[in-house]
Amino acid sequence: MPSKASPARWHGASLAALLTAWYTTASFLVVAGATGSFYLGLADNLRRISEQSLKDELDVCRALVRERGGDSHALHEEVEIDSAVRRYQKYYVRVLDSRGVPLSTTPGMDRDLSSARVAQAASSHNGIFWIDSPAGAPYRAIVATVPRDATGREVWTLQVAVDLAQEQEVLGRQRIWVWTVLTAALIFCPAVGVAIARRGTRPLREVAETARHISSTTLSERIDAEGYPVEVRVLAVAFNAMLERLEESFGRLSRFSADIAHELRTPVNNIRGEAEVALARSRTPEEYAEVLTSCLEESVRLSELIESLLFLARSESPGEHLKRTREDLGRLLTDLRDYYEATATEMGVVLKADAAETILADVDRALLQRALGNLVSNALAHCSSGDTIFLSVRRQPRQILLEVRDTGAGISSEALPRVFDRFYRADPARSRNSGGAGLGLAIVRQIVFLHGGDVRISSEPGAGTTVSVVLPQSA
Amino acid sequence: MKLLIVEDELKTANFLKRGFGEAGFTVSIAPDGSEGMRQIQSGASDLIVLDIMLPGMDGWSLLTWMRGSGIETPVIVLTARDQVPDRVKGLELGADDYLVKPFAFAELLARVRTILRRPPVREPSTLRVADLELDMAGHRATRAGQRLDLTAREFSLLSLLMRHAGEVLTRASIAGSVWDMGRGGDTNVVDVNVRRLRSKVDDPFPRKLLRTVRGVGYVFENPKRS
Questions:
Q1: Contact present, A400 and A361 (Cβ < 8 Å)
Q2: Across the interface, do B216 and A296 touch by the CB < 8 Å criterion?
Q3: How high is the mean pLDDT of chain A?
Q4: Would you call A303 and B214 a contact, using CB atoms and an 8 Å cutoff?
Q5: pLDDT at residue A1 above 50?
Q6: Average pLDDT, stretch A212-222?
């Protein structure tokens, strides 16, 4: 029965397309992930820096308020002059006295960050918060109280803010870079994916191309997968093995057809020749009778051969039915022994059947008789006076073993693997006249296969041969 | 006994007519289904030998028509097709027996005789041919008063041959009757057994009752003095 993997999983899609899609998605995600995380890291770092800077400034002002007490000149300098000079990460400070009146303010702060605005934003946050000017300029700010002196009776408020304009600018440039990279990736990744997929599947296409050229007349060709990637080589090797088997099958079939024609031709030639020669001149009735009888014998041989061939042909096609009946295999063997007893005795061969226990099985009686009969015939043909043939049947786990063992001449090791081939005769000297057409064992094998079993042969020249038939025990 | 043979192949029809004619039957031939139908309707045959592969109306149709019209004449079907379904079909449609071509004429003759011999005649308790006597009940064989020493199988073989005295039995039918060996088996084995039987039954005596018919089989009969 043909077996299939599950192609439904692939939905008939192109392998190259799938590879491209996966590669593109994966690489794009990697690029996006890398640039994204880099960007976020940068933003985070810049934030930390500005927050730290803000805290620093707050501490400085605090120190100035606390330590330099009434020295408002230093504070004034820090708040109104030093900060104004800065260009990068400009910060703004407002000092409010305990009544909320601004004592010192960095120039320009009032425009963007009025006291009220800052205070309002601070009310809903703890610590550092983000705030924007009415125009939308972004700042980070913090509001803290600081006691004026050690007594703590007078508490001033410090409002410190840092300008985020540059930070935003840096981030903005970075964002442009990220989008550019992603867009480029969006174009680049698929393109590379397609190229890789196409290159990757090229060996497959080449192998398919070679395979396309192989037909029944060029079966001896093989796919050369030298230098191809391992996976494709595996495919090519499997393919070549299949071609090997096909070539062998074709070879066997055409040899078989040629053999059939030859085998059929021989008796037909005999009949034709004998009749033609006999009719060439006037003969006596006895002579005619002799010729006719000989023709009859040849015809019978011919029809038996045809019947054997038809059997072999039919048994290979699926649906060949067996007429199974419950049979005692031991009885079958003893019946067989009875049948061949006279012949064996005449040859001086001892024929034994071992049927100690009753072994029942559902088999086609006529076919199995024929198969076992062929085996006994073969054994007799290889035995001479003094030899013994043993017929036995034994029950084994999940199977039944039938054996025909003889102590005869045996079969050579060159001939042994081919004994089941059609028309094969191990001893070429044993012509059609004394033996059969060489179909006996082929028929045995077919019958055994039809029963779902297997047949094996082992032999030692000079010691004997054993043929083992294994039948599955279904019941 | 009147036989109708429905067969379109000329040579086959000819040898069947000749063979059955010489066996004592009156034979008529119909070369196709419709002629067969006409002959069945007009005359009374004791048995019909029917080929399946006929031009025009095929054998199955003729058989179906016959049984459908209530004609109970026994029918033996001949065919070159040996599929199990065909056999079953033949018997289901009302045929009495089924023979595959190529067949041994002796086989066909034997089957015709078997069918026409019904209802079955009671087994005689003693079989006798010339000076050979077989006591079926006591399983004893004697010739010219002398007791013959036969094995059980040899006795079965001898009684089969004697029961069909005068009829040629093929090796295949002998193998089937005496040893219950199915079709397609090795029939040369029968030769050896017959040879042994012959050595016990015929060789010690002047008149040879067991005759070999080359290419066909064996026959047991009292040879005519010529």
A1: yes
A2: yes
A3: 85
A4: no
A5: no
A6: 78
DSSP string, B43-111: S--SEEEEES--SSS-HHHHHHHHHHTT----EEEEES---HHHHHHHHHTT-SEEEESS--HHHHHHH
* Distant-in-sequence, close-in-space partners of A365: CB < 8 Å, separation ≥ 6: A323, A325, A327, A332, B182
Q: What is the pTM of this model?
A: 0.62
The DSSP symbol for B213 reads: E
Q: Is the ipTM of this complex over 0.85?
A: no
Instruction: Give the C-alpha separation, A181 to A32, whole Å.
Output: 9
* pLDDT for position A259: 79
Q: What is the pLDDT of residues A158-213, one digit of tens each?
A: 888 888 888 888 899 999 999 999 999 889 888 888 888 888 888 888 878 877 88
Q: Is B121 among the domain residues?
A: no
* Distance in Å, alpha carbon of A222 to nearest chain B alpha carbon: 41
- Determine contact, residues A378/A340, Cβ cutoff 8 Å: no
pLDDT at A14: 80
pLDDT digits (tens, 9 = 90+) for A236-262: 888 889 888 888 877 777 777 887 888
* In a shared domain, residues B132 and B83: no
Overall domain count for chain A: 3
Distance CA A75, CA A95 (A): 9
How many angstroms separate the Cα of A272 from the Cα of each of A179, A268, A298? 95, 6, 10
Structure tokens at A137: 């300029």
Partner residue facing B215 (CB), from A296, A321, A339: A296
Would you call A429 exposed, middle or buried from its count of C-beta atoms within 10 A (0-12, 13-18, 19+)? exposed
Tell me how many domains chain B contains. 2
Kindly state whether B153 is in contact with chain A, defined as any CB-CB distance less than 8 angstroms: yes
Q: What does the pLDDT read at residue B226?
A: 45
Query: Of A284, A300, A316, which one is at a domain's C-terminal end?
Result: A316
DSSP state at residue A82: I
**What ranges make up the beta strands (E) of A148-209?**
155-163
Domain boundary among B87, B116, B145: B116
CA distance A337 to A351: 7
Looking up tokens 């439904």 gives A8
Domain limits at B174? 126-220
- The minimal CB distance from A366 to the residues B82, B182, B215 is found for B182
> Cβ separation of A342 and B193 shorter than 8 Å?
yes
Domain that residue A234 falls in: 230-316
